[in-house]
Amino acid sequence: MDVDAPALRDKGKSLTAAGIKSVPWVEKYRPQTLADVAAHRDIVDTIDRLTNENKLPHLLLYGPPGTGKTSTILALARKLYGGQYQNMILELNASDDRGIEVVRQQIQDFASARSLSFGAKFSVKLVLLDEADAMTKDAQFALRRVIEKHTKSTRFALICNNVNKIIPALQSRCTRFRFAPLDAAHVRERLQYVVKSEGLDVDGNGLAALVRLSNGDMRKTLNILQSTQMASQHVTEEAVYLCTGNPMPKDIEQITYWLLNEPFTGSFTNISDIKMRKGLALVDIIREVTMFVFKIQMPSNVRIKLINDLADIEYRLSFGCNDKLQLGALISTFTDARCALVAAAT
């Protein structure tokens, strides 16, 4: 039996020397074994132990993007099947059709076919459904029955970002593991390994900026690093922020100073100028200013109202509301907060 799984072959193959330079670093530095997975050692060790004891259940891995869910399953597949994993695995992701017909035909056919392990250490087949929360409800209900029927010959691994979009009937049939955002220490350690392997010129502030912008997403971090390195031979904090279009911390401090101290017209002119000059998006400014607000000492009631107002502005921006109007709303919100702070001090 030869199951066509090109996506999995691309992810799992050892990269050749000829094509290694053109490969995205996300794939080039994808963990090859369970021991290489950067974090979540408790989860990885549990899955490894279940595999060694031949007690592998159906798996449901969920959590934010870039936290190692797919890498863990691919590393598990390499351990189970060695060089024959492409024959023993069916992998589907969000780019494939996810309707009920896929479950009834492709998944059903693969699960019901006789297993020919070709010398693999683990004879039970594996169905990997990446981004399973994109499946329709009908497809999930159909999958529930397929899982029940073929448990003896097939294991199912479901990967998703939002576990609430997986029906309870499927959740109850799987062992669930939550992959939290990666700690800054794990992101930094992996970045330092990539920097050393690639021979990059990255200073301390540049590395700190990469970790800060990652928000626990290793995939995002490596993409930013590779993009920055292509644009600038010396990876600095400024180069990282310039490449991503995010406002620099010093810009956020300056903007917050204007919001808390300058009159309305002055703030509007200054923020509009820095937006235009540095190509900043208002929604990015609001998100960073919101984080900065948590560092400022102010009465709880003032902070609560300020955060609520900022959330409303960000919500309106997500629907395409006028930037100038929302910038005015931002300045008005801080003007109200400033008046409340003065009143609280007197």
Mean pLDDT figure? 86
CATH second-level architecture of the largest domain: 3-Layer(aba) Sandwich
Total helical segments? 17
CATH superfamily of the largest domain: P-loop containing nucleotide triphosphate hydrolases
Question: Can you identify the CATH class of the largest domain?
Answer: Alpha Beta
Q: What structural category do the secondary elements indicate?
A: alpha/beta
Which overall shape is indicated by the principal axes computed on the Cα atoms? elongated
The ordered H/E elements are HHHEHHEHEHEHEHEHHEHHHHHH
| Largest sheet features | 5 strands, parallel
Write down the CATH topology of the largest domain.
Answer: Rossmann fold
- Termini distance? 80 Å
Q: How much beta, percentage-wise? A: 5-15%
* Integer-rounded radius of gyration: 25 Å
Helix content: 55-70%
Tell me the number of structural domains: 3
Q: Total strand count, please?
A: 7
Flag low-confidence runs.
Answer: 1-10, 12-19
Write out the strand line-up for the largest beta sheet, numbering strands in chain order: 2-3-4-1-5
Indicate the topology.
Blueprint: H1 6-12, H2 25-28, H3 41-52, E1 59-62, H4 69-81, H5 85-88, E2 89-92, H6 100-112, E3 125-129, H7 137-149, E4 154-160, H8 168-171, E5 175-178, H9 184-198, E6 201-202, H10 204-214, H11 218-231, E7 234-235, H12 237-244, H13 249-261, H14 264-278, H15 282-293, H16 300-318, H17 323-345
Parallel strand pairs: 1-4, 1-5, 2-3, 3-4, 6-7
Helix pairs in contact: 6-7, 9-10, 10-11, 10-12, 11-12, 13-14, 13-15, 14-17, 15-16, 16-17
Keywords: ATP-binding, DNA replication, Nucleotide-binding, Nucleus
Subcellular location: Nucleus
Function: May be involved in DNA replication and thus regulate cell proliferation.
